[in-house]
Structure formats: structure tokens, C-alpha cells
Specification:
The protein is an alpha/beta fold. Helix content is 29%, strand content 15%. It has a single domain, classed as Glutaredoxin (3-Layer(aba) Sandwich), CATH 3.40.30. It has a six-stranded mixed β-sheet. The longest helix is centred in the first third of the chain and has 18 residues.
């Protein structure tokens, strides 16, 4: 009887952890180290406009842009929706239709910016992300791969240890929401865009 009393709670906790791709979502320590020469925004201000002006423009549909090539200065003065995800993460994939809906609703607004950022956790790499996009052409939002050193990545800077994760920043670069995509407060994007 004691074994059953212990086993059931352990199974329930394991199932809950699997639903958020948490725990095991931490970067793979066996993966090759990311290049240390890449520069990006300082850790204290993930949305700060401090990247080099020569960095790349936003990603085009169906492409994967390395974060190290993205001009974070483009975030200045815009409401920014960041979706952190992984190809291997079932709940992340389940949230993609909602992310696409948001993109379609707001993409024409010059004060809005969306970044769907693959964390590079586990065995994700640019090739895997491109392959996933190739199998899912209905998703037209801009996709990025966070190839920056771990201490400069969106996930690290925003203390994210599980995905999927939505981060919404106002026009000043202040984080207004950092949590599960299903729990984004209704109307938050509209409110921030109206400010």
C-alpha cells in the first residue's frame, strides 16, 4: 500500500512536468559550445537596442535567422512578442497555431514585432528548425535560432527554464508578460499597442 501511495504522486508530477517541456529543457551540456565571439544585447536588458546597426533585418517567412545576426535595435519603440520554443517540445508545437493567429492579426501594425525564437535546447539546430518549417508551411511568422552565448540568450536573460514561453515587451523594452502562451492576459497586446 505504501508503494502505491508514493508511486501515484510521482507519476502525476512526471506527467505535469512533461506538459510544459520543463526540467529537461535546460541546454544540452553535451552539445558543442556556442561561439564566444558573438556580440549581442547586455544580459540585464534583453530587448535593449544595443546591437550593431549593420545586423540583419527581420526574418522572412520560411527562413531561420540566427539571433546573432539580428539587429535588436529594431525592437526600440515597438511592442515585441517573443515566443521561445523547441522542435522537440510537444506543447510548443501545439501553441504554434495561436502564434500564427497573433502574427496574422498584428503583422501590419508598424508598432508590433514578433520573434519566434528556437532556444537551441536539446538537439535543436538551424537545420532541424528549417526542416520543421518545411513540413509546416502554414506558419509564416519570423523564426530565429538563438545561437548567441548562453548568457546572452533570451531564455537565460529572462530566467526561462521551461518552454513554451511567451515574453511580451512594451515599446520601452520593459517585460510586461513572461509566462505560458495559454495564459497571456486577454487584450494585453492591444493595450500596449495603444500606449
Amino acid at each position: 500500500m505504501l508503494k502505491k501511495a508514493v508511486v501515484l504522486p510521482v507519476l502525476v508530477l512526471t506527467a505535469l512536468a512533461a506538459l510544459t517541456c520543463g526540467g529537461a529543457a535546460a541546454p544540452d551540456k553535451t552539445a558543442p559550445a556556442k561561439p564566444a565571439a558573438v556580440t549581442s544585447a547586455p544580459a540585464a536588458a534583453p530587448a535593449a537596442a544595443t546591437a550593431t546597426p549593420a545586423a540583419a533585418a527581420p526574418a522572412a517567412a520560411g527562413t531561420v535567422t540566427p539571433m546573432s545576426a539580428y539587429d535588436l535595435g529594431r525592437l526600440k519603440g515597438k511592442v515585441t512578442f517573443v515566443e521561445l520554443w523547441g522542435v522537440w517540445c510537444g506543447p510548443c508545437i501545439m501553441s504554434m497555431p495561436h502564434v500564427q493567429e497573433l502574427y496574422e492579426k498584428y503583422q501590419g501594425n508598424p508598432s508590433f514585432n514578433m520573434m519566434v525564437v528556437n532556444t537551441g535546447w536539446r538537439s535543436d539546430n538551424v537545420e532541424r528548425v528549417k526542416a520543421w518549417l518545411g513540413k509546416n508551411p502554414k506558419y509564416t511568422f519570423p523564426v530565429y535560432f538563438d545561437d548567441r552565448p548562453q548568457d546572452k540568450q533570451f531564455a537565460t536573460q529572462n530566467q526561462v527554464n521551461s518552454i513554451p514561453r511567451s515574453i511580451i515587451m512594451d515599446k520601452k523594452g520593459q517585460v510586461k508578460y513572461n509566462g505560458h502562451p495559454a495564459k497571456v492576459p486577454a487584450g494585453l497586446l492591444d493595450k500596449l499597442l495603444a500606449e
